[in-house]
Specification:
The protein is an alpha/beta fold and about 550 residues long. The chain has a domain of about 270 residues: Rossmann fold (3-Layer(aba) Sandwich), CATH 3.40.50.300. Helices cover about 45% and strands about 10% of the residues. The protein has a 9-stranded mixed sheet. It is rod-shaped and about 180 Å long. The termini are far apart. The C terminus is likely disordered. InterPro entries: DO-GTPase2 (IPR045528). This is Double-GTPase 2 domain-containing protein. Keywords: Membrane, Transmembrane, Transmembrane helix. It comes from Brevibacterium aurantiacum.
Length: about 550
């Protein structure tokens, strides 16, 4: 019995010892696991923190260029090649492609930067997870996983913040663009601003001139200076020079270029109204004399027209024309006849008054250009004009010509050659939409007519009277044709010398004043002159 009890006791003690050993092992294993888990949590937390920090540092390193693979750069060359924008160039650059300039950083370059950051984060995470591929997998898995998770938390946090920033900037840009474009459009409409090239064979018309980069080593031509993808308020040329945007800001500072012929335009082109004065008429009708007298009068009698009124030539050709006109006027000599040229160059001038300024183009084509429609076809500036000055030489009218032959002035005064009506038809027959255009019929050489006419009535100075005089001397057919073509016809009479007060007929500046008002400009004179009274198609008096 005692032996049985001893065996049982030994078994119990053995079981107890086994249980204690197992329990101790369990406790030990639990402690080890807890210790390992604690370390793993700490390591994972530290790895996560390290990953977040790395995810926030990567953008800085990528944008600073510290990485071998930096972001793709939206260079001006890529812009020019069409690789930056999904859309083709529009507006003034439509036929030329995108200008050679840096795009807006947001969103175009910024988008590349975001892509580069995501690419770099992906490469770093691949390297981190690659550390798990080996016998050390149990040791590296948790820190690698924590680091990768933290890396993407930091990266995506940066991406979300910058994406929101990008959207806010894009919205602000859109609002600013609309405001600036509306302001530019309102300015252009208020000023009636446009550009008209006077170069032979070009005669292009636009409201958006091109501009040359001021860097002489660059020479890039910027076709569209409208705020947009290449700048909001300013633009950075591919060479690095900063250019002001909008025509209103660029034109006074940069060299304007004609987008049609690439020839330089006068400074300030595109910011002011352009008044075209295309003069039509047969050979020796007095076209050059009329324009020369007008230019010389603005130069010599500017203060009589309006206090402080000045005229400035905007090209070498115009400067020479103005100088010759003034000298010939002061010497009382007739100007030299215009040399026949199929595509003559216009004379651009800047006329500045006390209240406004405008660009005036005197367009003098030789009478040979108006012999036939084929000859006049090359004068394409006539297609865009809205007001015309048609000269009628009274000395070529048979009744007046007879008086000239009987006078002492016979052979001393040039007389228009060819048919006046043919000269008129050579131009008008090619024009469309005459309803929106105006014409001034100008009877020239009234001072000569006054000297030779003994029995015929003198030429009146008011529009209705001039019209009646033309009918009386046999030009009723010409008048009927003109008034059937144009709804707005005004009649003038001018002398050959431009003497007397410039705001009174028969001074040629009355015609210039009409041309300015007919094209939306402000009158040269403070009060409307009597020569500005026009006659409509029905023969009623109306203000032109």
């Amino acid at each position: 019995m005692p032996q049985v009890i001893g065996v049982i006791l030994a078994i119990v003690i053995g079981i107890w010892l086994a249980v204690m050993i197992v329990w101790s092992l369990f406790v030990l294993i639990a402690r080890i696991i807890a210790y390992v888990l604690g370390i793993a949590i700490i390591v994972a937390g530290l790895a996560l923190l390290a990953g977040i920090i790395t995810g926030l540092v990567i953008p800085y390193r990528v944008l600073r260029g510290a990485n071998e693979k930096g972001p793709a750069i939206a260079t001006p060359a890529k812009v020019r090649a069409g690789d930056v924008f999904r859309l083709s160039a529009t507006g003034a650059a439509k036929n030329f492609g995108w200008d050679y300039a840096w795009p807006n950083y947001v969103p175009f370059q910024f988008r590349h930067d975001q892509t580069a950051v995501l690419r770099q984060s992906r490469e770093v995470s691949v390297v981190a997870l690659g550390l798990c591929l080996g016998w050390w997998f149990p040791l590296a898995f948790i820190p690698a996983l924590g680091f990768t998770a933290g890396l993407w938390v930091g990266t995506l946090l940066w991406y979300v913040i910058t994406w929101a920033f990008r959207m806010l900037v894009v919205i602000a840009q859109s609002v600013t663009l609309r405001t600036l474009r509306a302001k530019e459009k309102r300015f252009m409409q208020q000023e009636g601003a446009t550009v008209r090239c006077v170069q032979p064979g070009c005669y292009g018309t636009t409201d958006t001139p091109s501009f040359l980069c001021p860097n002489s080593a660059c020479g890039a031509i910027h076709r569209d200076m409208t705020p947009g993808r290449l700048g909001i308020r300013t633009r950075v040329c591919g060479c690095g020079d900063e250019l002001p945007l909008t025509v209103a800001r660029a034109s006074p500072l940069l060299e304007a270029i004609c987008p049609f012929c690439n020839v330089s335009l006068p400074q300030g082109s595109g910011t002011r109204r352009v008044i075209q004065i295309p003069v039509l008429g047969p050979v020796a009708a007095g076209k050059t004399q009329f324009l020369a007298a007008s230019a010389a009068s603005l130069e010599d009698q500017g203060d009589d027209v309006a206090p402080g009124l000045t005229i400035t030539a905007l090209s070498r050709v115009a400067e020479q024309f103005l100088t010759n006109s003034v000298n010939e006027s002061r010497a009382r000599r007739a100007p030299t006849k215009t040399v026949h040229d199929n595509k003559p160059e216009g004379y651009p001038f800047l006329v500045q008054g006390p209240e406004n300024s405008f660009e005036m183009h005197l367009l003098d084509a030789a009478g040979e250009n108006f012999v036939t429609a084929e000859h006049a076809h090359s004068l394409t500036y006539l297609n865009d004009a809205t007001a015309y000055v048609f000269l009628v030489d009274p000395l070529a009218i048979p009744v007046v010509a007879d008086s000239l032959r009987r006078s002492r002035l016979n052979g001393q005064i040039p007389v228009a050659q060819g048919s006046t009506e043919d000269a008129y038809g050579s131009v008008v027959d090619q024009l469309a939409d005459l309803g929106r255009r105006r014409i001034a019929v100008v009877v020239t050489k009234v001072d000569v007519v006054a000297q030779i006419s003994e029995t015929e009535p003198k030429i009146p100075v008011d529009s209705a009277g001039i019209r009646a005089w033309l009918q009386e001397v046999g030009e009723d057919r010409l008048i009927a044709r003109i008034e059937s073509d144009f709804e707005d016809v005004t009649y003038f009479a001018v002398d050959s010398t431009s003497r007397g007060r410039p705001n009174m007929p028969p001074h040629p500046l009355g015609v210039v004043d009409w041309a300015i008002r007919a094209q939306g400009g402000q009158a040269l004179f403070g009060e409307q002159t009597t020569s500005a009274v026009g006659t409509s198609e029905e023969g009623e008096e109306a203000t032109a």
